[in-house]
Fold this sequence. Notes:
The protein is of the alpha+beta class. The chain has helices at 15-23, 75-90, 96-105, 149-153, 163-172, 224-248, 262-273, 298-307, 324-333, 340-354, 386-391, 404-410, 415-427, 434-457, 470-478, 487-497, 516-533, 536-552, 557-571, 574-577, 582-589, 595-615; strands spanning 3-9, 31-38, 42-49, 54-58, 62-70, 108-116, 121-126, 135-138, 142-146, 186-187, 192-199, 202-209, 252-256, 278-282, 312-315, 361-364, 462-464. 44% of the residues lie in helices and 16% in strands. The strands form three sheets. Strands 2-3-1-9-8-10 form a six-stranded antiparallel sheet. Helix 5 (163-172) runs antiparallel to helix 12 and helix 9 (324-333) packs across helix 10.
Amino acid sequence: MPGTSVVVSCDTLSASRLAESHRELKYKDGYDAWNLLFSPSVAVSFSGYSGYPIYCSDEDNLLILLEGLIYDATDTEIHSLLLEISENYRDQRDYKSIVTNFIDGFDGDYLVVLYFKKEDRMIIFNDRWGRLPVFFLQYDQVFALSRELKFLLYWIPSIEFDPFAIAEFLTLEYTLGEKTLVKGIRRMQPASLLQIERWNGRLVVTNEALLPVNFDTVDLGLTREQILHECVTRSLRAFSARVKRLQEKGFTIVADLTGGYDTRAVFVGLCNTGADFTAYNDVYTEVWPGGYGGCDESRVARELANLFDRKLVECSTQHPVDDFSTMRQLTYLTDGMVNCFTTLVCYFDDVEREKSLTRPVARFMGFGASCFIRHPYRLKKPYSNLAALLADDAYISPTMGIPAAYACAMMKLKKDEFRMSLDRELGLLPERDDEGRIRHLYFEYYNKLVNGGENRHRLFTWTVVPLWGKDLFSFGTRNIPSNLVGYRFYIDFLRLLDHRSLKVPIHDGYVRLDSPLSVLFYDAKMNLGETLRYNRYTFKAYVWLTSVLRRCKKSDGNHERLIQEVQEICKKGAARVGNIDEVALNRFLRSSPSSMQVYRLLTVLFYLKEIEQRFGNKIV
């Protein structure tokens, strides 16, 4: 992805090695990678395109780099506070409290690097919710950090894949905690501070979470109406701050508009600001493996755009989902963090959109940001704890996630070992009860998998998700009692944003949002679905029925091609690279998996194979 990369070494850095590590970051015309600072042992670089938001100040003894945007402060205010942090750090006075106040006080998506040249020290911190994915590695002689995993593979001494992380990805489609698929490469947690300094000929790195993520509910004693008004007030504040800041920076503003809930809220909130923007809708008429696609939501988008007197651009393009060579390259391009199927589809959508856009562009999106005020996340009954739920596949979609038994067998893990690993990860969560912990798990889902998709779009535009505004998201995840959360609550949220948003039915057509009776029946239906889904026995019955129907269904040619591609790439050694048991893998393929489950397996195999081709001599 576009963004910052840092290398600190105890040895003299090789300019040619640094240039080599930059080479793959130059994706296409208009991309470049350059050094913002290059000394014998420290390199701070940036890769991206013209218009991508970055602020850099290189003074006599201090390099300040801020990637991203803070929406509710001016450049002067930000620079002044960063100087105050720097002065306190240099004078060995309390600087952490200022960093903490900076993170807690400002709303934005950013990463900050401060390098003190004379002292040869560095501090790095990120925003409240870790909105820009950042990864790092640390050894006695080298520290490297980057927005791109592929950059770090050039600097890691050896590459060893983590079987527990791969098993988590196969089941959950993301990894828990700081883990990545490669041992030794960690993900920077939200609101964290890294300090890098030298001591007795080696590098010492401290990693501290200044504002740990905690989703224990704090009931403020507000009524339902008061909570709704608080959500609307905070969301409108987030919209206004973003629009004002982006207009000051000269961004062209566009917004996604589909038939769903999230983009409707974003579209309506953006209209409320009076901003000049264009709405975009991707028209899907193709039907892909497993019956996906063929969903044309342009009618709903068109009605909404006309109702609010806004311009709508409808984009339609071909998606070569059977072009496995391109899919494999894009999987590596996006660091293997998002399902290869959606990566390919969205990449070609972005290529098509780019033809009509002039940079810099800010793309307002929904991307699941409303789910904490739309879905009541809770533990399924009668599981004793969250680890038991995860190990029993009761947390994952039966058509998306690969069952833990198959994932463990493929990774040569005993299921008890996997369960103990999950227990260790869950034991690190700060919440007091499973209600808070399961919200934490869904936060990780949205902040890793879903945000990985958002990050993918940053290849083309700066993405903006106002419903992830710091104050709104904090309030939604901690201060709304779970019994209030649901679709009816969200529909009332839309009504308070702008009552006109309810005049157009939701994407499935039969739900009239402006009809109390229709909403009542819809709410009852969704509540029944939630009740069934949150019961272990009804959920397992649904999984069993889904499996039976899949076995009875005649396999189509597209699905067979997917299976053949898995087998073909295994013949080329991808399974051996990750130490995957091919007997267990083929047993999984014979179990009548869904197409999306096979795509998830392909994502891992594609990624392993691409790493082998580039770094085969490092793999252990």
